[in-house]
Each structure stands twice: as C-alpha cells, then as structure tokens.
Amino acid sequence: MKKELENFLEGRDIRDSEDMNKALGEFTLKCWKDFANHEISPEHMEAHQYLEKWEKYHHEKDLKKVLDVYPDCFLAKVYLSLNKDRFTFIKELEVMLDKEEKRINKTIKQYKKSVGFTLDGEDYFKGIYELIKAYMDIGGYFKASKLAEKILLMDNADILEVRILLVGLYAYLEEESKLIKLYKSRKEEYIPYYIAFMCLYYKRGDFDKAREYLELIKQKNIYFLPYIEKGVEKDVPKTVRVGEESEVVMIMKEMKYLFDSTPYIDEFIKMGGNI
After folding, report:
1. What is the DSSP string of the chain?
2. How far is it, in rounded angstroms, from Cα 117 to Cα 34?
3. What is the pLDDT of residue 55?
4. Phi-psi sector, 155: left (phi>0), alpha (psi -120 to 50), beta
5. Cα separation of 259 and 265, whole Å?
6. Any residues with CB less than 8 A from the CB of 120 and at least 6 apart, and which?
7. Contacts of 32-39 spanning 24+ positions with Cβ under 8 A
8. How many other CB atoms are found less than 10 A from the CB of residue 125?
9. Residue 2 pLDDT class (50, 70, 90 cuts)
10. Taking the model in full, what pTM does it have?
11. Which of 137 and 7 is assigned the larger pLDDT?
C-alpha cells in the first residue's frame, strides 16, 4: 500500500499539512471505491506487499510468493520475464500487454471508471514502462516514445515519471512541437524539461536559446555545473531530493542516452553556453 500511496502523491504540489490531508483523503476515497467495486481482492493486496519487497530487494522468491497468493498477478509475470534475453522479453511482453489491455478494458466498461484509478491499471502502466526501457536498451527511441504517449493518453494518466521520460525522448528525436506541448500542459519546473530543451536547441544550432535553458538548470540546481565539470559518474543514492546533487546524479543516469547523442554538449555546459 505504501508504494501505491507514493505513486498517488507523485507530482502533486504539497506545500503544507492541509494539502497533505486533502491528498490523503482523496487516496482513501480511491481505495474505498476500488474495494467497493471488487477491483482489488484481499489476495491482490497481499500480493502487492510481496511486489513492493521485490521492487526493493529484487529477490525472486518474493515474486513466487506473489503468484502463490495471487496467480493472476500481471506485474509479477512481467518481473519474472526480466531475466530472459532482451529479444524474448520484448516479444513476450508485447503479447502479455495486449492480453492485459483487453482484460482491463472489460473491467473499465463494467465499472465505468478510468484505468488509472485501479490497481490493475497501475500494474499495466508499470508493464508498459518496462517495455519502454527494453526498447530504449536496443535504441528503439521512437517506439519508446509512442508507448510513453500511450500511457499518458489513457485517461490522461497522471504519471510524472513517464512525462519526465518523454521529454528526453522528444529532445532525442528533435520533436520540438511535442516537447513544447507537453511542457505547457503541466508547466512543471523540473530540470529534465530544461535539459531536454537545452539539448534540442543545441542540436539545432540555436545556441542562444540553449544557453537560456542552461541558465535555468543552474538556477534550479547549483550542483549541476560542478557535477558536469568533474566528469565523474556516481551511483544514484537511495534518497533523491530535488535541488541537491542526488537529483543531478539520477537525471544524468536516466538521460545518459540524450547526452551521448549530443556530442560536445558537456563542453557547451562547461563554457556556460558562451560559444
């Protein structure tokens, strides 16, 4: 349940206890509606406790416990397939997702509610996210972007992690109009957006615009420039906080493909964009 609460709170603008209490009330209502519609069985909830353990420790025994408790758990089957070779995994997951989508669509019609409001829906989105990462591993960035768009289109799913992933893909693919539209739809002030715009305009030769976004990055996180100047990669810490070096470490790992596809961008950054 902790994981579901974290996902529910992700991306929300919570400034004080009043905002938190309001969000917790909405989450409680969501859970009661799920139970009222019989969309989450006690077995499913117990299975998710083991899933949370697997996501933290990656012990296969926890996945087997999930399937012992709840044999129909889609996400456990996805995670069990992760140890297969990338090509087999992609092919199997494509089939699994197609079947799960059809099953979920029947549930949505039966209860007349959005897929993102159910635990099954959250599991399905996580499955797509694993497929996105698999395609990115083989350089399938266009396919990955289409899958990410699919998640956001399904009942306007509010998943910050997917939006942050998508801005990087749009920059890689140089899809300026889509990047601008996604940013304007939320106006989220996170540095991955600014990094995406910086790389996009840098590749287009619009260095003045690229420098403007570099300045915004530096304002949002004072550790960004020193980290680039050092040129030493660090492991992502367990706790990541916005505005601290841990945020930069995480973003540089997640967006490494974008930096690798933007030659000499590190020199541009070290020079403060003054070229």
Report:
1. -HHHHHHHHTT----SHHHHHHHHHHHHHHHHHHHHTT-S-HHHHHHHHHHHHHHHH--HHHHHHHHHH-TT-HHHHHHHGGGS-HHHHHHHHHHHHHHHHHHHHHHHHHHT--GGGSHHHHHHHHHHHHHHHHHHHTT-HHHHHHHHHHHHHGGG---HHHHHHHHHHHHHTT-HHHHHHHHHHH----HHHHHHHHHHHHHTT-HHHHHHHHHHHHHH-TTHHHHHHHT---PPPSS--TTSHHHHHHHHHHTHHHHHTSTTHHHHHHTTT--
2. 8
3. 85
4. left
5. 7
6. 39, 74, 104, 107
7. 33/113, 33/117, 34/117, 34/118, 34/119, 37/111, 37/113, 39/107, 39/111, 39/118, 39/119, 39/120
8. 21
9. low
10. 0.81
11. 137
When pLDDT is cut at 50, 70 and 90, the band that residue 153 belongs to is confident
For 270-275, the CB contacts below 8 A with 24+ separation are 270/225, 270/228, 270/229, 272/211, 272/214, 273/207, 273/210, 273/211, 273/214, 273/215, 274/211, 275/207
DSSP 41-98: -HHHHHHHHHHHHHHHH--HHHHHHHHHH-TT-HHHHHHHGGGS-HHHHHHHHHHHHH
d(CA 196, CA 50): 36
Amino acid at 27: F
